[in-house]
Design goal:
It is a single chain. The protein has 161 residues and is mainly α. The chain contains four helices and no strands. The two termini are 38 Å apart.
Length: 161
């Protein structure tokens, strides 16, 4: 392999990386909105803000605190007024549905991040393989050079014998 071929392989790897990244963006981006029906479509009231810029961590924490509060209140109601537990159970169910939906909406982000990580590892391995081939080529060239020099040094003496 010469330097031109090495450059060609590296360019192919870079082009492959760009193509894969574009493919990921297109396939995951196009499907992201189609994958998960909104809470409204399911007939469930949404308890966290709507829009593309949701702070998932903040909203999950908020819903979790609200869930804890409702569960404690349910315990109090079950002790003091057992006949009024149904409304609290419905509220807890609503919070669970919102938590579940919010968590499910994170799946495309997680899938994209995982896929990007896997592709980065593959590219890294391929670049390492190219470097390994370069190193082995240089070692082989050095051995050939030594052999040629050795033959040139011993060449006339072989002719005399």
């Amino acid at each position: 392999m010469n330097k031109e071929q090495n450059r060609s392989i590296l360019e192919e790897l870079e082009n492959l990386e760009e193509t894969l990244n574009e493919s990921i963006r297109e396939s995951l981006g196009a499907r992201m909105n189609d994958m998960l029906p909104s809470l409204e479509e399911q007939g469930v009231r949404q308890l966290y803000p709507k829009g593309p810029n949701i702070d998932f961590k903040k909203e999950l924490r908020s819903l979790n605190r609200e869930l804890q509060q409702h569960i404690l209140e349910l315990a109090d109601i079950l002790v003091e007024r057992p006949s009024q537990y149904a409304r609290r159970v419905e509220e807890i169910s609503l919070i669970f549905k919102n938590l579940h939906h919010l968590l499910n909406s994170l799946w495309p982000h997680q899938a994209r991040a995982t896929l990007v990580h896997i592709l980065e590892l593959q590219i890294k391995r391929r670049k390492q393989a190219v470097e390994d081939v370069k190193r082995r080529r240089e070692e082989a060239q050095a051995l050939l050079k030594e052999s040629l020099e050795s033959l040139e040094d011993t060449g006339p003496s072989l002719l005399l014998k």
